[in-house]
Amino acid sequence: MKACIVAVGSEMLTPFRVDTNSLVITERLNAVGYDVRLKAVAADHVEELARVIEGAMGWADLIVITGGLGPTEDDITRDAVARVLDVPLDVDEAIVTGIQERFARRGMTMPENNRRQAMVPRGATVLENRNGSAPGLWLERGATSLVLLPGPPREMTPMLDAVIHDRLAVRSRGSGLFRRVLKLTGRTESDVDARAQPVYSKWTTEQVPIATTILAVSGQIELHLTADAPDCQSGEAALDAAVRQLEAILGDVIYSTEGRPLEAVVGDLLRERKLTVALAESCSGGLLASRLTDIPGSSDYVERGVVCYSNRAKVELAGVPEAMIAEHGAVSEPVARALAQGIRERSRTDVGIGVTGIAGPGGGTPQKPVGLVCVGVAVEDDVWVRTFQFVGGRELVKYQSATAALNMLRLLLLKGPR
Question: Fewer Cβ within 10 Å of end Cβ, the chain: N or C?
């Protein structure tokens, strides 16, 4: 079943507001078998909104419209829907009474313009709003159902859940779209796709078809698998089999098959092995420590972190020899190794990580360009050092530096140094 989501509000077409309702709506609809094929944001203009709705009526089984149900002149959702369906708007006095009582409980008198919220396209079913004054509406025309929901999330979400429970779930008979997110790092998007495409291209014709989307996200790769299944059990079984196939060809490039962040995966490995870690960061500026400590319970394994930004800090805080910096430069594999070993020894931890590089936009040279990063990871007496050449702006270089350090530690903990 195909669905369309329309968010109404000129403010969401400015740099200051973003439509977040559609994310919640998509999740809920997928769970009961609706595939969202289009999301749109429409201005508070009745003719333009009517054209969007009319276009979706030609193909969508369900149209979910949020916003534009308030009491002011720019709340035009009801008007646009009535225009498309060619029906009049009637004032529902029961809604008016409910709004008046709501104001009275707060010691106020309902403004006359709130009567607009009681205007109902003829033939619509009114949906109760227990968290606000704007009721929702349910309409059907031919093969298409329309549901109109208020914009504020605290009003929209409970009403949406009620619609799904009372009206949409019964249509799915347990079918749904079931998802799995695999996360990978250490390979390019094109390389991952070249390896995975011969496998996932066959899934679309299976008894439980699986659609695959590959995304590059902040220097990492995500594979999104979506199974269209008659029930949860068969959907999850198909996804389990698909994940095993991808693991067989991609190996340890995959760090999570459940959408978990890399820092959580690494944290679990440290906790399982009862290891502690200390960090000496230069170009990543504390981002590695921040990501590790974003995970609840990280005090089990994170002992300390220092930002060794200057050469003096590298010497004083991590014990890097001044002569080494003079000979090789601060951005070099010997210094990354010394940072990792030095912070581990001074902190008396099991693991030390050192990160040094050129985040840019300035500071690069032909020999050491912007984006050059050296990472050292010391696990007890084993040390692994690697040099990376990242692309992108300063923020992205910092993020990729932290990701590379986390992934190096993950691989070392899984199967030792390379």
Answer: C
Mean pLDDT of the chain: 95
**Cβ pair 87, 121 in contact under 8 A:** yes
Domain with CATH 3.30.70.600 in the chain: 176-256
Fold exhibited by the domain 273-415: Maf protein (3.90.950)
Q: For residue 69, what are the CA distances in angstroms to 93, 184, 209?
A: 17, 43, 39
The string of DSSP codes covering 58-111 is: TT-SEEEEES--SSSTT--HHHHHHHHHT--EEE-HHHHHHHHHHHHHTT-PPP
pLDDT at 334: 98
Residues of the chain with CATH 3.90.950.20: 273-415
Indicate the fold that domain 2-172 takes in CATH.
Molybdenum Cofactor Biosythetic Enzyme; Chain A (3.40.980)
Q: How far is CA 4 from the centre of its chain?
A: 20
Q: What are phi and psi of 104, to 5 degrees?
A: -65, -35
Strands (E), 130-219: 136-141, 144-149, 176-184, 210-217
What single-letter amino acid sits at 205?
Answer: T
| H/E run at residue 42 | strand 35-42
pLDDT of residue 418: 45
CA-based end-to-end distance of the chain? 50
For residue 381, what pLDDT is reported?
A: 81
What are residue 63's DSSP bridge partners?
A: 4, 146
User: Under a CB-based contact definition with an 8 Å cutoff, are residues 134 and 117 in contact?
Assistant: yes
pLDDT at 174: 80
DSSP 166: I
Which residues in the chain land under pLDDT 70?
416-418
Nearest to 361 by CA among 392, 329, 405: 392
CATH fold group of domain 176-256: Alpha-Beta Plaits (3.30.70)
Domain with CATH 3.40.980.10 in the chain: 2-172
pLDDT in the model for residue 218 = 80
The two most distant CA atoms of the chain are separated, in Å, by 85
Angle of helix 189-200 versus helix 232-250 axis, rounded to 10 = 130
